Amino acid sequence: MKVQRLSVGQLATNCYLVWDEKTKETLIIDPGEAAAYIEAKIADLKLKPTALLATHAHFDHVLAALELKLAYQIPFLIHAKDLFLLKQAQKSAQYFLGISVDPAPSADRFLKEKEKIKFGQEVLKVMETPGHTPGGISLLGQGVIFSGDTLFANGLGRTDFSYSSKKDLDQSLNKIFKLPKATILYPGHGEVSTIGEAKKEQI
Fold this sequence. Notes:
Elements: E1 2-8, E2 13-19, E3 25-29, H1 35-45, E4 48-53, H2 65-72, E5 76-79, H3 83-97, E6 109-111, E7 116-119, E8 122-128, E9 137-141, E10 144-148, E11 151-152, E12 155-156, H4 166-176, E13 184-187, E14 193-194, H5 195-202
Parallel strand pairs: 3-4, 4-5, 5-6, 10-13
Antiparallel strand pairs: 1-2, 2-3, 7-8, 8-9, 9-10, 11-12, 13-14
């Protein structure tokens, strides 16, 4: 499994291109902004996108989804409990960033706990990790996890939104921290780390 991290948009969201080295089949995780930049990287690497996935539906993680979905004719997948945030993404971008953007696309399918997303000979498994948002997920592969805004290298996801839950976030972190310490942590913002290093930051 190969991973390319792209920092996109005003909030420096991590968009990840994750692909099977043999087939070049690729997942696009958290297509935040800068669709043209993401498309250019995909072309440079000669990748073949098969799906768009959002770890949660905050606007800074989905703003490029419509353009990329149309460009590659691939499905867009989120957790059902974040559908309300997806519908608000356009207004949220206007409110927080003062920019006019296209609406986020509708979800083609909803992700569920333990579901396996296959691309080439590689697999990522869905781990429900609510707290920051009700439908927050992480994506777990062999020795790696894409944690969205649940866990960062040196911090945790915010739970001060009306729909957030610190209790749920704590339970989600307990699940993540059971993974091997050497598991590579690919967060929604900031630098790449490991589960062991990120856990030390919480002590």
